[in-house]
Amino acid sequence: MKIQKRRSAPQAGQGRAVVTSWEPLAEWYDGWVGNEGSHHHRQLAIPALLDLLSPQPNEAILDLGAGQGVLAPYIAKAHAQYTGVDASAKLIQLARQRHGNQGRFLAGDVRRLDTLPGLRAGAFAGVTFLLSLQDMDPLAHVLAAAAWALAPGGRVVIVMTHPSFRVPRQSGWGWDPARKLRYRRVDHYLTPVAVPLKSYQVNTQNGGIEGVSRSFHRPLHSYINELAAQGLWLNALNEIPTYKRSRGKKQAEAENRANSEIPLLLALRAVKMG
C-alpha cells in the first residue's frame, strides 16, 4: 500500500511506524476486498499471479502490500511458506485474524524490509505484488527492497492494472456510432503522475486529519527499466482481459469484443540474476 500522509502506531516487534494513507481507509478497503478477495482478485489477479509464480513446497514467498492477506491461503495450499507485509496495521490485524494459521504478517514499510523482524537478505524464493505496486512510491526504493529480499534465481511477480490502457482518471471507454465500435481512449500516458483516489477524514481529540489515497501511474517502460536496474530481468509478461461479458444490450457484441481485446491487467515476472 502507498506510504504517505498518516502515521500508524507500530505493534510490538514489528519495526518502525509507517506513514500510510491506507490506514484510515482500511475499513472501506476491506469492504471492497473482503475475506477472500474481490471478484477481480479471485477471477483474474490471483490466478494470473499463481500462474507466473508457480509456488513450490517449502519455498519462502514474500507478499508486499499484502493487505488482508487474501493470497496467503493459495500459497499455503501449495505448501510454501507465506510472509505478508503491509503499511496498514489495521489491514495486517485483519490478515492475522483470518489467515494467521496460513502464514505470518508484519506491519511495516515495504521500502525498509531490513528493519522488520525475521526478514533477511536473500531469504525468499519469490516476492509478489498483488494489485499493490501501483499504490507504492518511490518505485526504485520498493523494487530495491524486493531485490534485497530475493535469493539469486528468485523471482518477483507483479500483477497490476494495465498501465498502458487503464490510467486512473485519464482513460475510459468511447463509442464510435459510425463504425459501431467500442474503443479505449487514453488521454495521458508517458508522464508519471500521482492520481488522487479516495479522500478520508479522521476525527481525533486534537481535531481532524484529512488526506487522500493515491495511485501512481507510470508508463510500462518505467517498470521494466527499474526492474533491470535492480538486477531483476523480465522473463514473462501476460496481458489479461476482463472476465465480464455484456448480454442483451444493443452494444453488447461490440463491448464484448473490446473487453476481450483490450487488457485490464498486466502480469510480469522477473528473475534476480546471480
Describe this structure in words.
The protein has helices spanning 26-33, 39-53, 72-77, 89-99, 139-149, 220-229, 252-261, and strands at residues 7-8, 18-19, 60-64, 81-86, 104-107, 124-130, 150-161, 171-176, 181-186, 193-204, 207-217, 232-240, 265-272. It has a single domain (7-272), classed as Vaccinia Virus protein VP39 (Rossmann fold, 3-Layer(aba) Sandwich). With 274 residues, the chain is an alpha/beta fold. The two termini are 29 Å apart. The protein has 7 helices and 13 strands. Helices cover 26% and strands 33% of the residues. The strands form 4 sheets. It has a 7-stranded mixed β-sheet, with helices on both faces. It has a two-stranded antiparallel ribbon with strand order 1-2.
List keywords for this structure.
globular, two-stranded antiparallel sheet, 7 helices, single chain, Rossmann fold
Average pLDDT level? 86
β-strand percent reads 25-35%
Q: Write out the strand line-up for the largest beta sheet, numbering strands in chain order.
A: 5-4-3-6-7-13-12
CATH topology: Rossmann fold
CATH superfamily: Vaccinia Virus protein VP39
Runs in which pLDDT lies below 50 for 5 or more consecutive residues are: 1-18
Largest sheet: 7 strands, mixed
Structural class: alpha/beta
User: H/E series, N to C?
Assistant: EEHHEHEHEEHEEEEEHEHE
User: Number of folding domains?
Assistant: 1
The shape, in one word, is globular
Cα-atom radius of gyration: 19 Å
Q: What is the architecture at the second tier of CATH?
A: 3-Layer(aba) Sandwich
The number of strands is 13
Rounded to the nearest angstrom, the distance between the terminal CA atoms is: 29 Å
Which class in CATH terms?
Alpha Beta
Helical amount:
25-40%
Count of alpha/pi helices:
7
